[in-house]
Design a protein that fits this description.
The chain is α/β, with parallel strands linked by helices. It has seven helices and eleven strands. Helix 5 links the parallel strand 4 and strand 5. The radius of gyration is 18 Å and the shape is globular.
């Protein structure tokens, strides 16, 4: 995969922006996600791993982790952080999209738990891709294993329609980054949202990232999971801004 993808253009700022702008919520959300992993869950696949927020914490706790991420820039950040944390040997990095991750010849199909959290599922845009993604998750798990899928309620997307504006001080850049993000319905396809992320750096440079998201419902995801041999097993409740659905591989 050589084409640039979402988040590549600002991957080196991603952690600092989120930690500075949403510090308490961000760390609380991570702690909540980690509590979902029981002691018996020794092998974890983290789908949409980003810069390793969960993958590195899991690896530092001694678990074997498969980190799936389509953004090369985000993966570079993950690998550097894992090396710095001394746990790179426990993380298998796979540069792939969600729905084709298990076609990668090195991805094992015996994971104890799968994570697909923090907006990840909303970057799947069609029903076909949603079903392929849920099938990929199911195939990566052994029988009786658990998958956790995070779903943002509709009001979260409505907030993005109104726009987000943050001023984030990043000392190494010598000043404040102006971070704006907004979403509008895609012309001709009301199911999709065009999301525009703009970063104005202290030196005057501007970084723009154009993303597309889809506000899937709990019912749509549960239905796709059922067709992929994943049985709904309730919910872990709200963690951060998303409801975390629980599924069991039968």
């Amino acid at each position: 995969m050589t084409e640039p993808t979402g988040y590549d253009s600002w991957a080196d700022l991603y952690d600092e922006l989120y930690e500075s702008a949403f510090g308490a919520m961000y760390s609380s959300m991570t702690a909540g996600h980690l509590r979902l992993v029981a002691d018996r869950h020794s092998k974890v696949i983290d789908i949409g791993a980003g810069t390793g927020r969960l993958s590195i914490a899991l690896a530092r706790a001694g678990r074997a982790v498969t980190a799936i991420e389509p953004s090369a820039g985000m993966l570079r950040g993950l690998e550097k952080k894992a090396i710095d944390a001394g746990c790179r040997d426990r993380i298998q990095v796979v540069h792939a999209c969600m729905h084709d991750c298990v076609s990668h010849p090195s991805v094992a199909l015996d994971h104890d738990v799968a994570f697909c959290l923090f907006t990840t599922i909303h970057h799947v845009l069609t029903l076909e891709s949603l079903e392929l993604t849920m099938t990929a998750i199911a195939r990566a798990l052994k029988s009786g294993a658990i998958a956790f899928v995070g779903v943002h309620p509709r009001y979260v997307f409505e907030q993005f329609r109104g726009g987000m504006n943050q001023s984030v001080l990043i000392a190494r850049l010598g000043g404040t980054v102006q971070w704006t993000q907004s979403a509008v319905a895609m012309q001709g396809n009301p199911h999709l949202l065009d999301t525009r992320c703009v970063l104005r750096l202290p030196d005057g440079r501007e970084i723009t990232d154009l993303l597309v998201t889809r506000p899937w419902t709990v019912e749509e995801i549960t239905s796709a999971a059922s067709r992929a041999n994943l049985t709904a097993d309730g919910t872990a409740g709200m963690i951060g801004t998303e409801e975390v659905l629980r599924f069991v591989k039968m």
